[in-house]
Amino acid sequence: xxxRCRIPLPxxxxxxxxxxxxxxxxxxxxxxxxxTTILDAIAGLIDVTEGEIEIDGRILFSSTRGINLSPQQRxxxxxxxxxxxxxxxxxxxxxxxxxxxASGITARARIETDHVLAVLEIxxxxxxxxxxxxxxxxxxxxxxRAVLSRPQLLLLDEPLAALDIALREKILPYLSRVRDxxxxxxxxxxxxxxxxxxxxxxxxMIHKGRLLAQGVPKDVLGSPDTIAQLAEEQLENVFAVMxxxxxxxxxxxxxxxxxxxxxxxxxxxxxxxxxxxxxxSPGDILISTERPEGIxxxxxxxxxxRRIGRSDGQAMVVVDAGAEFYVRLTASAVDxxxxxxDHPVFLIMKTHSFRIL
Length: 357
Fold this sequence. Notes:
Elements: E1 2-8, E2 13-19, E3 24-28, H1 35-43, E4 50-55, E5 58-62, E6 67-68, H2 71-74, E7 76-79, H3 91-100, H4 113-120, H5 135-147, E8 153-157, H6 165-181, E9 186-190, H7 193-199, E10 202-207, E11 210-215, H8 217-221, H9 224-227, E12 237-247, E13 252-257, E14 262-266, E15 275-280, E16 286-288, E17 299-311, E18 314-320, E19 324-330, H10 331-337, E20 344-349, E21 355-356
Parallel strand pairs: 3-9, 3-10, 7-8, 8-9
Antiparallel strand pairs: 1-2, 1-4, 4-5, 5-6, 10-11, 12-13, 12-15, 13-14, 15-21, 16-20, 17-18, 17-20, 18-19
Helix pairs in contact: 3-5, 5-6
């Protein structure tokens, strides 16, 4: 896909020049960076000052050639943040509305209704009114409606933003199934790093309409200099762990990383041997160059520094401590502690700074 466009906005201009070919491309950036504006431009919902938008050799917009296809002519499926389902229709009627809008493109014509219903597990919801759906169910119905329109491209605008963390974890596998089951390229807008890593093959990282970096997500997001530019809410340390034991009286659970490193996290009423996912913000982790004594934090873990990135007075330190931990510090703190790569350090984390997913 070729995506070159300039769109003036009140506070800045979206000025993007990117070319990519992936199953799922994530447009990733903080709130207010122009992500939805880019989707609207691709869909033909807003005016583009200049540029070209091309999908699989088909030109949707070209300022130099005078081409500007209408939204109906672009054959694009769009799922906004709010599912935007028709409240006066049932689930079945909403889903079939997508089928009626099918573009008829041969490569997509083999997508069958029953297959889509099975992949998204919504066959049991068909007779239900839209007003009786949960947030996660509504998003799956919206996805089904969009897929059944047999689009050339599927646009997803923060489809999980309105859901709580538990629901996000349940819906993410469905997005992966859509990616794997149907030969429809997807552009996925999000400001959440874990969503990018879960579903995307390629990433466009933007800030205030400007492309900061693009490439394979692990490569782009593995750069501390890139990571240091992320807003606090965009980056989380997420780990798969196994429960060793749960102590209700102490209010904590002892868990183990895949490496064998043990951690204390808040109490959960689950048996030993059960898997969990836990997360902690990079800003909730402290670094010490010596093992601290006489402190209340439940987790003091030795490790060594892998990488350090800096941006605008902030630093992101990547520490190997049985797993890679991202730690956000000020640049002055890095200098004061004389932190360098391969330097041994200790991570300090309060038990209740961890969140259970």
